[in-house]
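Quick bug: Lrp/AsnC ligand binding domain-containing protein output formatted oddly.
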Amino acid sequence: MSHHHLDSLDKKILRLVAEDARIPFLEVARACNVSGAAIHQRMQKLANVGVLKGSQYIIDPEKIGYETCAYVGLYLKDPESHDKVIAALKKIPEVVECHATTGAMDLFIKLYAHNNHHLMQIIHDKLQPLGLARSETTISFSASIDRQLPIQDLPHTADEDEDDDE
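Here's what came back:
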């Protein structure tokens, strides 16, 4: 996996937009002491190299009727069906995350259901037919921590020392 060099300006921009994705570029420019055009160019660069992955509104699942959040470990009968299972999981709207994992389980998913009965239907009607040997489900009562990776904890680079000298 490639890492991209981030200078102190990039890190400051990332801190600001991570805190508020709707912050106007001119406000970012003022906070960073650079022009609006410079911020626009940096934001474009950060998007082009994949550091920024778009912006979106975050919908609270519970507010729209999805009261059950569950994590499900999937154990495939045939591990060679991995790609086919992932393609099928992408078609299940309640599945919001899918991770390939180490250890005994093949995949680990996060999904939302209206309630426990709906969760059981998803597992029985949508997951089991994918060729599972078994699954393990954990229901989440609440998320005690739900945040972005903190920008201030990014590694310090020698180039930042040069930036500070200017």
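Actually, after a second look the formatting is fine. The beta strands are 68-76, 95-100, 107-113, 132-140. Closing.
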